[in-house]
Amino acid sequence: MNDVITLAHGEGGRLYRELVEQVFVPAFDNPALRRLGDSALCANYGGRLALTTDSFVVRPRFFPGGDIGRLAVCGTVNDLAVSGAEPMYLTCAMILEAGLSIAELARVCASMAAAAGEAGVSIVTGDTKVVEKGSGDGIFINTAGVGLFRRQPLTQRIEPGDVILVSGSVGEHGLAVLAAREELGFQPPLCSDAAPLNGLIDCLLQAVPETHALRDATRGGLAAVVNEWAASCGLTVEIDEAAVPVGPQVRSACRLLGLDPLFSANEGKVAAAVPEAKAAAALAAWKKHPLGKEAAVIGRAEAGPPRAVLVTAIGTRRLLLLPEGEQLPRIC
Amino acid sequence: MAEISAVPSALYEDKRLIAELASRIGDSLRHPLTIMEVCGTHTMSIAEASLRSLLPAELRLISGPGCPVCVTDPTLISSALALARLPQVILTTFGDMLRVPAGDMSLRSLGEQGADIRLALSPLDALELAQKEPERQVVFFAVGFETTAPLTASTLELARELGLNNFSVLSAHKTMPAALRSLLGGAVQVGGLLCPGHVAAVTGADSFGFVSRELHLPAAVAGFSPVDILLAVAAIVEMSEAGQAQLVNCYKRAVKPQGNLVARQVLDRVFEPCDALWRGLGLIPGSGLAIRPEFAAFDAARRFQAEIAAAPVYRDHPDCRCGEVLRGELPPEDCPLFGGSCTPRQPCGACMVSSEGSCAAAYRYGEVKP
B343: which chain A residues are within 8 Å (Cβ-Cβ)? Predict the structure, then answer.
């Protein structure tokens, strides 16, 4: 491991996993932590309490389709929801840099309140610290979320024969933030998909309680989710590139910049693994929800070496590998 | 700035057409054949679409020095690092240059330490930045072949027109034909050349005529969709089997025999040929583009001559074999660093950094082996 923290440690790939496995888990080790889920299941309370936390740093703070506040609420709500829990309460801790305009802070808070309203959760406590100018980046937000398991927590184990679905078109958030940060000036602007997914997930779990696994396709995109499932469950997961919904804007921007929509982050898309017999019901449940209109069946899990395989748009097959390093626009 | 509208025609990814071309290639091929491509976008398209899996095993597609980022020598990156360290300088460059290692440094790691290094999609972005930041010196670190060099050239003309005194370009621009002569006249065993469609769109199909005339290799100018590439491969295979060495233009919708005259003229007005260092190929006479004396005021190599001369020069990782990969002598997977200590996240060599590099392509788009 490198001896100092680099930006690459924050990108969610191999270095990040090493940090978790070699520093955090040994330090805090306990049964609830060891599952390393999106939220922890706290068994002391009858196994019904779900707890999660997430910190948010994003530059720029405002981008088409969202802002750091909306991301904070949606990210925390979604971490609870993909565990199968019903999000109830959030906390909001802010580290503010001296010099930040109060109007801007109020705008972020209004956005958090609106997103909490969409998700049906309340932000019930908070904390504020201010650091010297130059010691922060305007606003850092940490949110913790508490939820209740009203049904059995998901096993998060995919099984041979499972069908993989995604709730809508992929890649939007990552490209929207990249375009805003680098001032790429696309017209019309690329919009982030940041949205609370608890309603969409509840729809699915009501229709298909047999759902095996759910994961929001954030950092590392859909490719990271599929790779994690393949590795953790020891199965081959095959994805059909032509079936993965990608909007025309994202597709064109990716071609222009040399990026891959499957690796680009989402903040409002979830992937699901369901038994084959339930795939049609799962798809129908999502398509009825406003956030799931573009949901699609995109692949399946099979017994085989643990790997993700992509069937390309022209019918050839190649490995879909875990994203490495941040995606940077290429030269031409 | 950029208009998002172009969705490529479905025809170029048509499964039936692709199957027909693949079987035409399989039927024509009687002898083992190695075809080299020298364009990063070809490298990526071939890997992304997994085209090799459609072709007979006796037909090898190998990647030459077609990625402009990969062929940028560490000495030039050392110069860019030296400029980025100057407090008055904002260094701008294309995204994939940021992570290219020179020794244990890269522009990105220098940026993490506080240097002002920014990503640009175009030299025009850098020029705009110079207008917005009149107190700072904005340097654009320009890499690329004939495809990107015209844009740098017209940006320099614009800078002169605007009378900017805080904008300059560090040119690592290179030209393809001289490098190809040097490479294909050497030890590499190549039986055919897939010519880069983007370069040819500027320089003209005729600029690759020497490949067939002088080097006696069948060659085809190719576009970038699976159908485009397979069409050109089929043409090369058929010529090779018939014992012919010609240049065929399989990308006529974009490439004219004389190329893009306006782009060639602006290149000539601003740049002149110079000897250039290529990573892996060494010094190739006449293969670089230096800024002409008329534009000396905008030439970072002149403006910061003393600072560049005083700066440390970084060297490649001692076990890095990017040179052999760039010459098409070593498949990426056979480099001892590949996938171990050299990955896209922590690259030792340039071919792993750039999204167009052959190592990155081999790593990112792995073949499915049973």
Answer: 14, 324-325
